[in-house]
Design goal:
28% strand, 25% helix, three-stranded antiparallel sheet, single chain
């Protein structure tokens, strides 16, 4: 996702840090790019693509929040 967004917006010279929340069923409920790319098109593009991902269901029925560096 980050490479495609970098190519599309021609500005991915470093990593995009993204905060995301994953629900117990594995769906992504929220994504937010972190500064300095939070207001840049590439950051918004990566957040939109990551929001489409699906993770394994939680064995304990819990949601989780992560901050991920993507290149």
């Amino acid at each position: 996702a980050s490479r495609d967004c970098g190519r599309k917006h021609m500005s991915l010279s470093s990593k995009v840090e993204l905060k995301l929340e994953v629900e117990p069923n594995g769906s992504v409920s929220s994504t937010a790019p972190l500064a300095p790319l939070d207001v840049q098109p590439v950051g918004q593009c990566v957040a939109k693509e990551v929001a489409k991902l699906r993770f394994p269901e939680s064995e304990k029925g819990l949601s989780d929040t992560w901050t991920l560096p993507l290149r």
